[in-house]
Write a structure and sequence with these properties.
CATH architecture of the domain at 170-272: 3-Layer(aba) Sandwich
Strand content: 15-25%
Order of helices and strands: HHHEEHEHEHEHEEHEEHEHEEH
CATH class of the domain at 170-272: Alpha Beta
Helix content: 40-55%
Shape: elongated
Structural class: alpha/beta
CATH topology of the domain at 170-272: D-Maltodextrin-Binding Protein, domain 2
Radius of gyration: 22 Å
Distance between the termini: 47 Å
Strand order of the largest sheet: 4-3-5-12-6
Number of helices: 11
CATH superfamily of the domain at 170-272: Periplasmic binding protein-like II
Largest sheet: 5 strands, mixed
């Protein structure tokens, strides 16, 4: 295996087409095909399946390409550190539940290390997809929460995917509401206070189990349910319909504006928010720095 072969494989995956990848790499297509076949033979796997419609990445290929991208990213950082220049784009990807401090840290990292060429991904997504992204190295790091209700199931899923969870901070439950909500004048809220209003939650796709819910107390009965996929829609509905969502209470007015406020919720519960990483891999320099930014932003 060589770094050149890894770059070839990643370029094929990025373009989805051998001909286009060969053009981008400035090599003949037969040479590219031969290099990929040598990689597959060396490691005894099939990275791509080929047909008249193009190529598809196999399950083994997804894992292989995840490791390949990490090696190439580390090489890029190494060259930049010791040669003083970068050969290509700086790449970084985070998968997370919907937390403003995660985005704030992402912005800070990008400002520090984006440079002239970069490809950064900020994936606010479903809980199971966060785990799957990090397990298959599509993301360097994932952010989610544990509490007494979901911990057994989530930790088992993490173990099954060879991932480790590290706590960042423990949050007391809060409620996000619009600043003009009828509940806005109260210093704190009870579940009884919330009963007349619609509850908003994030969709969890095919893994829509209570254990994978992003919101705590998801098993509490509610007559009015609104399920959304993105933060902007959730915030708009909070404001427009006097809705609410149960959350950590951590919010950035700079990123999310002044129209959403957080009120403490009087319940005996908590959210242990932390990050997940592959158990067998040492985090990259960018990942380590991102973790330090997260710690700074969430420090009590």
């Amino acid at each position: 295996m060589t770094l050149k072969q890894l770059r070839y494989a990643v370029t094929v995956a990025d373009t989805g087409n051998m001909t286009e990848a060969a053009k981008r790499l400035f090599i003949a297509q037969p040479s590219l095909t031969s290099a990929i076949m040598e990689l597959e033979k060396e490691y005894g796997i099939t990275i791509f399946t080929r047909s008249n419609k193009g190529i598809e990445i196999t399950k083994d290929g997804e894992e292989f390409l995840g490791y390949a991208r990490q090696i190439l990213d580390q090489t890029e950082l190494f060259d930049e550190r010791y040669k003083g220049h970068s050969q290509g784009k700086v790449r970084f990807c985070v998968s997370s539940q919907h937390y403003s401090f995660v985005v704030e840290a992402f912005v800070e990292l990008l400002k520090a290390h984006g440079g002239n060429k970069y490809e950064f991904h900020m994936r606010e997504t479903e809980t199971y997809d966060i785990i799957d992204d990090v397990a298959h190295l599509r993301s360097e790091i994932g952010i989610l929460y544990l509490n007494e209700f979901n911990e057994t199931i989530i930790r088992k899923t993490l173990r099954d995917n060879n991932l480790i969870f590290t706590p960042l901070f423990k949050a007391k439950p809060h409620v996000f509401i619009g600043k003009n909500s009828p509940l806005a004048s109260k210093k704190s809220l009870t579940l009884k206070d919330l009963e007349p209003y619609p509850r908003l939650s994030y969709e969890q796709g095919s893994h829509n189990s209570f254990y994978f819910a992003e919101e705590i107390l998801s098993t509490v009965d509610c007559d009015k349910e609104l399920v959304v996929r993105d933060r902007a829609t959730l915030f708009n509905l909070l404001i427009g319909l006097n809705g609410y969502t149960i959350c950590s209470g951590v919010i950035s007015e700079e990123l999310n504006g002044p129209n959403i406020i957080a009120k403490p919720l009087k319940v005996d519960d908590y959210m242990q928010i932390g990050y997940i990483l592959p158990a067998q891999l040492h985090p990259s320099a960018l990942t380590a720095e991102y973790i330090e930014i997260l710690k700074k932003l969430t420090k009590a």
